[in-house]
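Progress note, project year one: complex with adenosine-5'-diphosphate.
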Amino acid sequence: MTIAFVSSSSAIAIDPDLPLLLEAAGRRDLRAELAVWDDPGVDWSSYDAVVVRSCWDYIGRREEFLRWAATVPQLHNSGAILTWSTDKTYLQQLEASGIPIIETRWDVAPGDDLGDHAEWVVKPTISAGSRDTARWETAEEAWEHSAALVAAGRTSMTQPYIASVDDEGETAMLYFSGTFSHAIRKGPLLERGEGVRQDRDSRETISPRVPSPEQRDLAERTIDAARTAMGLPSAPLYARVDLVTAPNGSPLVIELELAEPSLFLPQSHGGEDRLIDAVLARIAP
Ligand SMILES: Nc1ncnc2c1ncn2[C@@H]1O[C@H](COP(=O)(O)OP(=O)(O)O)[C@@H](O)[C@H]1O
Ligand SMILES: [Mg+2]
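Model obtained:
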């Protein structure tokens, strides 16, 4: 049996999860290879499973990426899941099914009510790595940023800046086929006064974290709500639920990553083995 882990030409050498996945496959006597999604020389049908990993250059080429995904047999997560998960308007569906998300206003225009908050975050619905995202202290700046995104043909989201992120960070929880694997703390990324930046990747500070029962419960309900919204028979192969803590202390979903999440395997204990086992369970004998 052969598995492909799919990356991009810019990430294949730097994604720290990939070497751990290859080693874990080797321990199971599985053949595993790395591949780049837009390499025309790859015969995707030759693999028993094709697992999307660090295709991080799809931003700006999303249609091309999704067209590619639609042609690949045995793709995990599937093209339909990738389509759903790469546009944060999915948060509206999660909210409608009772999942608490950060209070979000969509496509706000100058003069629109932004709620009574000290700071706001404005971001596009299709983004990653906090690109085109900023933290603002005035409504004028938030309006202007949102209007600029809309004028560029994008959908914008305006949220209160969740102050607990500055100390507590985010809690990212990894699930393989719906089963909890591990969790990490991700430190804050947006600095006050810096405006829009595209170069925050190197800022990520990651450490292991034990989630609370309340966080576990919300993460599991979130994956289940997504599964229902997409009409999937079972949980996706991999899911990362990112939570923040509201001013009242309860968890809120900031993002559900079902496309190309960093899995933070170096900060896990055996996460790579659990993912390989989940892949194996999907390959028909
Ligand atoms: N409402 C918010 N409050 C506090 N921090 C936020 C908020 N929205 C985004 N951020 C910060 O910006 C980062 C990127 O936003 P996110 O919604 O996770 O999009 P993506 O990771 O897809 O770029 C987060 O990791 C977090 O540090
Ligand atoms: Mg994020």
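The chain has three domains: 2-78, 90-100+164-263, 105-158.
The radius of gyration is 19 Å.
No further modelling is planned for this target in the current period.
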